[in-house]
Design a protein that fits this description.
Length: 502
């Protein structure tokens, strides 16, 4: 027989608080007043409420164009109340989501605190979410599980339908891109993927509650488990077919009309961290692009100088955006600044820090050296962020889909052999860097940085969350945006590539 541990005596003050709080809690439960328990969300104890509010709970999962709350946007939101699945799609009915959420008392997500709900708050001003939020990432963490939703599903013995089991976040952005060009099957596949996400959230919620409740009570036989199996997959909702309409002018054609230089020659470079891996190089002459893969620094300088471009746009891959604040004590002052904060990407409420990554150091140093060498030879050089341009234009980023990246640039109005020939992803990203250079020449850009340093050039777009960007700039000590920085001209007020003609 085990030794019984005597109960911990309660202080007089705590006893008074409990004497008041417990009857109020019972009354709130009777009235189904979830707002009374809202503070349990911040304390990580909201899971305890689930059985009492299960009939007024909704399981939520969003899809986006990427991870940045500055440059990316919400494309789809799925809701599941335990019986019915609803989907809210950008360009169709996404604007109806806030009113729909008002009907629930509890919202259940996986990593919603750091991603889903954060994106929704940025997308909808004055959004009123259900008063109680249960984030299953942290609920399952209490049970000792770590990893993403798919990993947690496996730990709980949950399998996915074969049709969507290989889809992940990167593939979801590709499906959305295919939808934008009229592929109805891609949208249906994305909906199926989202449907499984929210249905599995319900199963994980119920199983996690049963396990945690057993841990707390210590008596597994004294309570009835609430897990009733995985819900049946509801019938897919009907969605409107997207019609792709040709525009009178492509994005590139409009930018060329506004360019300070008629028919400019722009070299775009998608730089890698060392000469061990080829760098993408592109020449954009007017609306036509030619690409190469170059390895050595000498090759990069020689080919670029020989091209006699009007401007050179160096994109330090996706990591270019990271260099927004210098790292004291790294290996010197400005000339050895290392990327510290990733513009627009946060994790667990904190900015990711990259200063000590060797790959970042070598990439930054190589980029600064190349820019200096080209400027010594009389060329105008800008540092560009091709990843942001791809987000803004609705093109999947590096590593997601080379086909969709080519399609997006072609729809923007860029022609060339790259469309049919076998080229590397780095070469096509170099075209994107050149496109940022065209935005620069057309005066349609914002510059991130300080006067004492090279600015990072990003295309202007109403797709950018300028409020969030301003908040990040304030935290990193960079120049604030001027009132004119948010002004955008006509064509790319929509995702420009959607309406542009091939």
């Amino acid at each position: 027989m085990g030794i019984l541990t005597p109960p911990v005596p309660l202080s007089r003050a705590l006893r008074r608080r409990l004497d008041q709080y417990i009857p109020e809690s019972v009354d709130a439960l009777r009235r189904q007043d979830a707002g009374f328990f809202a503070r349990l969300s911040a304390l990580g104890e909201a899971w305890r409420l689930f059985p009492e509010f299960a009939s007024r709970a909704v399981f939520l999962d969003i899809e986006t164009t990427g991870l940045s709350p500055v440059f990316d946007s919400v494309t789809m939101v799925g809701l599941f109340d335990g019986h019915r699945y609803e989907v809210f799609i950008d360009g169709q009915n996404l604007q109806d989501l806030p009113d729909r959420l008002k009907g629930y008392s509890v919202v259940v997500t996986f990593n919603g605190s750091g991603f889903d709900l954060r994106f929704l708050r940025l997308a909808f001003k004055d959004l009123k979410l259900p008063p109680v939020h249960i984030d299953l990432r942290w609920v399952t963490r209490r049970l000792g599980y770590r990893g993403g939703l798919k990993s947690i599903e496996k730990e709980f013995g949950i399998g996915r339908d074969q049709a969507v089991e290989d889809i992940d976040g990167h593939e979801a952005t590709v499906l959305w891109s295919r939808h934008l060009r009229g592929d109805r099957g891609a949208l249906q596949q994305l909906i199926a993927y989202n449907t499984e996400d929210v249905i599995h959230l319900k199963a994980i919620m119920e199983m996690a509650y049963d396990r945690l409740a057993t841990q707390v009570s210590g008596a597994p036989g004294d309570r009835r488990e609430i897990y009733g199996g995985i819900a049946a997959t509801p019938r897919p909702p009907k969605v409107a077919r997207r019609t792709v309409q040709a525009a009178a002018k492509t994005l590139v054609a409009e930018l060329l009309e506004r360019s300070a230089i008629p028919e400019p020659k722009i070299v775009g470079i998608d730089l890698t961290g060392s000469e061990r891996r080829a760098t993408g190089w592109a020449m954009l002459k007017g609306a036509r692009a030619e690409t190469k893969s170059l390895v050595t620094d000498d090759d990069l300088v020689r080919e670029t100088v020989a091209a006699m471009p009007d401007i050179v746009s160096i994109g330090l891959s996706a990591l270019c955006a990271e260099r927004v604040e210098s790292c004291a004590g790294a290996i010197g002052r400005r000339r050895s600044d290392l990327p510290k904060v990733r513009v627009g990407v946060e994790e667990d409420g904190n900015f990711r820090f990259w200063a000590l990554l060797p790959s970042m150091k070598s990439l930054t140093m190589r980029g600064m050296w190349l820019a200096d060498e080209l400027r010594k030879r009389g060329l105008q050089v800008i540092e560009s962020y091709p990843g942001a341009a791809q987000d803004i234009l609705g093109i999947p980023r590096k590593g997601s889909s080379l086909e969709e990246l080519k399609w997006g640039l072609n729809r923007a109005g860029i022609s060339g052999h790259y469309l049919k020939e076998r080229v590397s992803h780095d070469e096509v990203d170099a075209i994107t860097s050149a496109l940022v250079g065209l935005f620069f020449l057309a005066g349609d850009f914002i510059a991130l940085g300080t006067q004492a340093e090279d600015y990072l050039i990003v295309p202007k777009s109403p797709r950018i969350n300028y409020a969030k960007l301003s908040e990040i700039l304030a935290q990193t000590g960079l120049d604030e945006l001027s009132a004119g920085d948010t002004g955008v001209r006509g064509l790319h007020a929509e995702p420009a590539l959607i309406a542009a003609s091939a």
